[in-house]
Write a structure and sequence with these properties.
2 domains, alpha/beta, about 55% helix, 5 strands, about 240 residues
């Protein structure tokens, strides 16, 4: 499986030997003698890969780098390496999201198996993230009223029910729904529901429960907040 492995270890001989093994297996390899070196050349998340990170390195430690990488938004899986078995540290880094914790010396089979799994997971997660970013970008183009119609439609409310809730005619709701379908590029109602699920719309929160007892043409604060969140996420993605 192609991919790029980033080795962070202060032991030159270990870096060289591991780099050789990984390149022989077909991987691209980048090496760093310290956590600070990796931060200076922050790896690209867009390339399938993972990080082999020694627990005990001079300066910023492996677990400290793990925390820092998550803060800056890195999604590269981390495989920790250690020559000093420490259950407490292993549990700590795994709970913090590490893919594995290997004890030196590491056999080629063990190393490649762990790297293969980590890169496969990263590739899958990255593809899902790209799809999610596109979905959020499309939803961010909806007007506040279109968003309310989108929420209500994807929770199974009929056009007549939505018209009553929002204080308008069924014909108006039908027009809003058509624009929602066009803007989100959803070819069917099923695709629209699937889109709602992918962006994490909660089935537990029904907008109807938030509506006043009488129809209202005013856009709810929750709708405005959700659209602002989506537009902010879309702007960040484009940036």
């Amino acid at each position: 499986m192609p991919g790029r492995v980033h080795i962070v270890d202060d032991d030159t001989s270990f870096r060289t030997a591991t780099e050789r093994r990984l390149k022989h297996a077909g991987y691209e390899v980048e090496t760093y003698a310290s956590a600070e070196q990796l931060m200076d050349r922050l790896p690209d998340d867009g390339v399938p890969g993972c990080i082999l990170l020694d627990v005990r390195i001079p300066g910023m430690s492996g677990p400290e780098l793990q925390v820092h990488l998550r803060k800056v938004g890195s999604t590269l899986p981390i495989i920790f390496l250690t020559g000093y078995p420490d259950i407490r540290t292993a549990v700590q880094v795994i709970k913090a999201g590490a893919e594995d914790c290997l004890i030196k010396p590491i056999s080629s089979d063990e190393l490649l198996r762990s790297v293969d799994l980590a890169i496969a997971k990263h590739s899958s997660n990255y593809r899902r993230k790209m799809v999610l970013d596109v979905n959020r970008s499309l939803l961010a183009t909806l007007t506040p009223r279109e968003w309310e119609v989108f929420e209500l439609v994807t929770r199974g409310h009929t056009g007549k029910q939505i018209a009553h809730i929002l204080g308008c005619t069924e014909r108006t709701i039908k027009a809003h729904r058509q624009r929602v379908m066009e803007k989100t590029q959803a070819p069917s109602f099923a695709a629209l529901v699937s889109l709602a699920e992918r962006v994490g719309m909660s089935r537990d929160r029904d907008p109807v429960a938030e509506q006043p007892s009488t129809p209202s043409s005013a856009v709810s604060p929750s709708t405005t907040n959700e659209l602002q969140r989506l537009r902010s996420a879309a702007a960040t993605m484009r940036g």
